[in-house]
TrEMBL record:
This is Ring-cleaving dioxygenase. Residues 9-134, 157-280 form the VOC domain. Residues 310-334 are annotated as: Disordered. It comes from Halobaculum magnesiiphilum. Keywords: Dioxygenase, Oxidoreductase, Plasmid.
Length: 334
């Protein structure tokens, strides 16, 4: 078996939402992430696929959503990504609490975890999300998008995901095979159903952590849950070697699937969480200029020939713009 290049960390996280406009408004205007791609679910082309990321769609920054409007509310439980955490600069959580108060966001008290301060909150669909204060180095690969949130407070890509698992040992062995290293364990009372959190670290700078918590709490997929988590395997060779290593763990990864902005391999790990391996190229700017990312509905490959049919099935959405928001606020004050 070819040697495995350790994953750099999380590539993207894909979640299930309800109303597409509400989803768009929250993740763009409230959280200040850029819509870098407005497309469709390539396995269900009557459904949008939104990609929210930093200013350039850097790997390790994109939170993506399938807004399945007719699906029921989900419940986070065993065999799922239970929390998705983002990095924010040190000292910015006061700003975010004030912003959440202004926008009516449901959030909890801060907690300390592995020496870092964490602010838990939920999106409008009830999806559990966290902000974690970290020191952002000057050479950080992420590029803050500043249309709604200033750079010194802006979200700077993923910090971590937390996995809720019935039998963590087999998944922890898989994470080691993927090149993550166990870096610590601590008690985790109150905020999770498990009493011990184990942290693994990947080789990269963004989205490097995976936390594992034991739980047998039942869950179901629906609005407010994570569909899958993708890990960075930058090149085709990296991905192929990782796929072979995953097979060696007794799992059944798919063949490579072309997702237009990256190439993907999918598999369910031992406890049922859907994992993806994703390449770095060709990237979100491969079919749109960087300045115009998210500006139009992009229909990859053969779907372009079905544009009229597909657009007729999709709910109209408007991408929030800072100028429009300022105009509306000014008119409301008059």
């Amino acid at each position: 078996m070819a040697s495995v290049t350790p994953t750099l960390g999380i590539h993207h996280v894909t979640c299930v939402a309800g109303d597409p406009q509400r989803n768009m408004d929250f993740w763009v205007e409230t959280l200040g992430l850029r819509l870098v791609k407005r497309s469709i679910n390539q396995d269900d082309p009557g459904t949008y696929h939104f990609f929210f990321a930093d200013a350039e769609g850097t790997p390790g920054t994109s939170m993506t959503f399938f807004p399945w409007e007719n699906l029921s509310q989900g419940k986070v439980g065993s065999g799922q990504v239970s929390r998705t955490a983002f990095r924010v600069p040190e000292g910015s959580l006061d700003y975010w609490e004030d912003r959440f108060d202004e926008f009516g966001v449901d959030y909890d008290e801060r907690v300390d975890r592995f020496g870092e301060t964490v602010l838990p909150f939920r999106d409008p669909d009830g999806l559990p999300v966290e902000l974690v204060e970290v020191d952002i180095p000057e050479d950080d690969p992420t590029v803050p998008w500043t249309e709604f949130v200033p750079a010194d407070h802006a979200i700077r890509g993923f910090h971590s995901v937390t996995l809720w698992l019935a039998n963590p040992d087999s998944t922890m062995d898989l994470l080691r095979t993927m090149g993550l290293e166990e870096v610590g364990t601590e008690e985790s009372p109150g905020d999770t159903p498990g009493d011990e959190r184990t942290r693994f670290a990947a080789a990269g700078e963004v989205g490097k952590y995976v936390d594992v918590l034991p739980t047998v709490q039942a869950g179901r997929q629906g609005h407010g849950t994570v569909h899958h988590v993708a890990f960075q395997t930058p090149t085709d060779d990296d991905q192929s070697a990782m796929r072979s290593a995953v097979q060696g763990e007794g799992l059944r990864p798919t063949q490579q699937i072309d997702r237009h902005w990256f190439r993907s391999v999918y598999f369910r790990e031992h406890n049922g969480v859907l994992f993806e391996l994703a390449t770095s190229d060709p990237g979100y700017d491969s079919d749109e200029p960087l300045d115009d990312l998210g500006g139009r509905l992009v229909l990859p490959g053969e779907f372009e020939a079905r544009r009229d049919e597909i657009e007729a099935q999709l709910t109209d959405v408007t991408v929030p713009r800072a100028e429009a928001a300022e105009t509306a606020e000014s008119e409301a004050d008059d």
